[in-house]
Amino acid sequence: MLLSLDGTLVVQVINFAVFYWILNAVFVAPTRKARMERYERNRKIEQETEALHVETRELRAQTAAFLGAAYREADLRISRADAEGSRRAGEIIATAHAQAKAKAEEARRIVGAEVEALRGERGRNVEELAALMLQRTIGEAR
Asked: What is this structure's pTM?
């Protein structure tokens, strides 16, 4: 007969059970434990990586929003400064125009006064010249 049920079968089953228990205790269990620890470490690293990706996206969005606000604020300040500069330039031009007008009026007044003075002097000079010419003419005729 090919298969006989005797005491060696029981010994073989016990032998296999002990071998399986030793093999499991020495090789399989530590290997399984190491694989599970590695799996847990990898899972934690993946979770941390995903959390960092989410945080990075949030920070990029915040940075973009901050830069957008900064650019808008800068544009607003530039336009305000431009308006203020235009206003000041208008004031300076108006002041310079008023000063130039006042100086022109003062110059006209001075020139007018000098012209009147010269006209008055011209009349006297003409009279003096006429008197001098008359005197010379009379003085030669004698």
From this structure: 0.46
SS3 142: coil
Write out pLDDT tens, residues 26-52: 999 999 999 999 999 999 999 999 999
Residue type, 40: E
Q: Which residues contact 43 (CB under 8 A, 6 or more apart)?
A: none
> What is the C-alpha to C-alpha distance for residues 26 and 20, in angstroms, rounded to an integer?
10
Identify the three-state secondary structure at position 6.
Answer: coil
Please name which of 134, 113, 111, 115 lies closest in space to residue 123, comparing C-alpha atoms.
115
Cα(91)–Cα(83) distance, integer angstroms: 12
SS3 4: coil
Cα–Cα distances in angstroms (integers) from residue 89 to residues 72, 77, 93, 102, in the given order? 25, 18, 6, 20
